[in-house]
Design brief:
single chain, 597 residues, alpha+beta, 6-stranded antiparallel β-sheet, 5-stranded antiparallel β-sheet, elongated, EC 2.7.13.3, PAS-like_dom_sf, HisK_dim/P_sf
Length: 597
């Protein structure tokens, strides 16, 4: 109980500028010691501790404290430092028996360090940008900082001969209270150059226990600066309102049950204006069951992982099909049970349209890259078919088996031409916006048919491999095919443009199954033994418009668009490379056990 009372007393005295301690004469112990005293003495002791640890002569201190009639005076004693050196100090003390109401002999000692106070003549805030000065209880100026002196165009020696009332014209109520209590008052002050300026005067009275004379600190706060700051803040608020009024987004905060807690100002976001979201409603009530379940799953993932997630959905507004994106951003709170998420709705219809155009442009750039090789590949079976056909026309072949053999060769050549033309036409066709459940091997074969011709033309060995028991993938397969073609074309260009050609240039296209981070992945890979990529270039390869083939018609869009396509399918694309050795591109796509995923 006593310890609790001492602790409360120390809290009440915490504002004191004079360090203090509590001693108990009955136990001859120090019950509480101010941190400043501990630091100056270099003490590291647990409290309570014997008085002998702090005072050189504890008996003298005890005798002094019992002389209650002298408790208002200053007394000289010596304190012990941890290295046994002693320091002279001035002490004032008072009994706390009346406060504690116990049968105790406890005193509070205020300690002032003689050797320190002798060297401290002026406040330490000399460099403070706010004009300030200090006076004694009678208003006589003791010190003023540089900002104050410059404002009044006066020296420190001149100002120390003046009273505060000579410097400042104050109304009578402020004048009479200035030296007694803390005040705050707005005044007009004329500078040494005769310019009037508006200030807020703030004064603080600090008791001086060594001589019972108060010190008064006076600050002058420039109200014009404060008003400028307020104007700046107001201007910023208006700019912020203007910014929000022009962005095409909707902001909603929901809890983990998807119940709306707060809806930000709607401004121009059309979806919110038509659906009229209200606090207390379920944010996903306007969606069909399958879409609702998908979005709730993303919401739960954002909360559980405390990470930003994204989801897209299509919605018909005013008879027009639009595509929207939702960013799920966890709102981090001190209370872990307070689980809220900010949903940021964005209309990405136009963005998706532009993305489609970029993908189409990349697609036709790839067609141009492989068209020459395909023309050569088509010409070979075409010439063979024509030769066999000429034999049938000019030679009257009577053997039915030989005639059948020639016709089968003509058919095989034409089927090869048909497949190549179909593959090229499929590549150029606008793909469906919907995803299909397909075999990754099907994409591998189609891609191989289109690129192996270009490899042969460049004398590059092309191989492919596929792991066993590959699961299906749920994708827009034309886009995945396009990404693979783009990666193979990059490898072809890298190998064919080497200053010192490889003796055995090669490219391998493959598919494997991988389980990583508790998820199943189908991994496409494109590996070459080309020149590799240096570290500086590797950091930039996915940046839009970055290319090392600017003088060879490179666009710098291929890899950036490829990365975007794979990300939209929930996958990742990585590049492993060693400068001078080769490069391997790995494309991770989520595996699906069946068409329903």
């Amino acid at each position: 109980m006593l310890e609790t009372k001492i602790h409360k007393l120390s809290e009440l005295l915490s504002h004191s500028s004079i360090p203090y301690l509590f001693v108990d004469l009955k136990s001859q112990n120090v019950l509480y010691c101010h941190d400043q005293i501990k630091n100056l003495l270099g003490l590291n002791v647990s409290l309570p501790c014997p008085m002998d640890l702090i005072f050189e002569d504890s008996i003298k201190v005890s005798t002094l404290l019992k002389q209650k009639s002298n408790q208002k005076g200053n007394h000289q004693i010596r304190c012990k430092k941890a290295n046994l050196e002693t320091l002279p100090v001035s002490v004032q003390f008072s009994s706390v028996d009346d406060v504690l109401n116990d049968e105790v002999e406890i005193y509070i000692l205020y300690i002032q360090w003689n050797q320190i106070t002798e060297t401290v003549h002026h406040p330490q805030n000399v460099g403070l940008e706010i004009p300030f000065l200090t006076t004694d209880s009678f208003g006589n100026v003791q010190f003023a900082n540089t900002r104050f002196l410059d404002f009044f165009s006066i020296s420190l020696e001149q100002i120390q001969k003046k009273s505060i009332f000579e410097l400042l014209s104050l109304p009578e109520p402020v004048k009479s209270n200035l030296l007694k209590t803390n005040i705050k008052h707005d005044i007009d002050i004329y500078s040494g150059l005769g310019e009037k300026q508006k200030f807020q005067l703030q004064s603080f009275v600090t008791p001086n226990y060594s001589n019972s004379i108060n010190n008064i600190t006076i600050l002058l706060l420039d109200l014009s600066s404060l008003q400028n700051a307020e104007n700046t803040i107001r201007y910023g608020e208006e700019k912020l309102k203007t910014f929000f009024a022009t962005i095409n987004n909707g902001f909603v905060i929901v809890n983990q049950e998807a119940i709306i807690i707060e809806v930000a100002p709607i401004f121009k976001f059309l979806l919110f204006q038509l659906l009229a979201f209200e606090v207390g409603e379920n944010i996903f009530q306007y969606f069909d069951l399958s879409e609702r379940n998908k979005l709730i799953e993303v919401l739960n993932l954002s909360i559980s992982s405390q990470s930003t997630q994204r989801a897209e959905f299509d919605y018909s507004l005013l008879g027009e099909d639009r595509t929207f994106e939702i960013k799920f951003i966890p709102v981090r709170k001190l209370n872990p049970n307070d689980k809220k998420v900010m949903l940021v709705f964005s209309d990405i219809t136009e963005t998706k349209r532009l993305d489609r155009q970029l993908i189409e442009s990349m697609k036709f750039a790839s067609i141009g890259e492989i068209a020459a090789g395909l023309a050569h590949e088509i010409n070979n079976p075409l010439q063979s078919a024509l030769l066999y056909l000429e034999d049938l026309i000019t030679v009257d072949e009577t053997d039915p088996n030989e005639r059948k053999n020639i016709l089968q060769k003509i058919e095989a050549a034409n089927l090869r031409i048909r497949d190549l033309v179909k593959a090229l036409l499929d590549l150029g066709r606008m793909e469906s916006p919907n995803r299909d459940f397909v075999s990754p091997y099907y994409i591998l074969v189609r891609t191989s048919e289109l690129v192996e011709v270009s490899c042969r033309k460049k004398n590059i060995q092309f191989t492919r491999h596929a792991g066993p028991n590959l699961p299906g993938i749920f994708v827009r397969w034309q886009e995945i095919e396009q990404v693979l073609i783009n990666c193979v074309v990059n490898s072809i260009n890298a190998l064919s443009e080497m200053e010192i050609p490889r003796e055995n240039p090669r490219i391998e296209l493959g598919i494997d199954f991988l389980r990583s981070q508790k998820k199943d992945w189908v991994v496409f890979s494109v590996e070459d033994n080309g020149p590799g990529i240096d570290d500086d270039t590797l950091e930039k390869v996915f940046l839009p418009l970055f290319t090392t083939r600017r003088n060879k018609q490179g666009t710098g869009l291929g890899l950036s668009i490829s990365k975007k396509i794979i990300a939209e399918h929930g996958g990742e694309i990585y590049i492993k490379t060693k400068n001078g050795v080769g490069t391997k591109v790995e494309i991770f796509l989520p595996a699906h056990a069946d068409e329903n995923g």
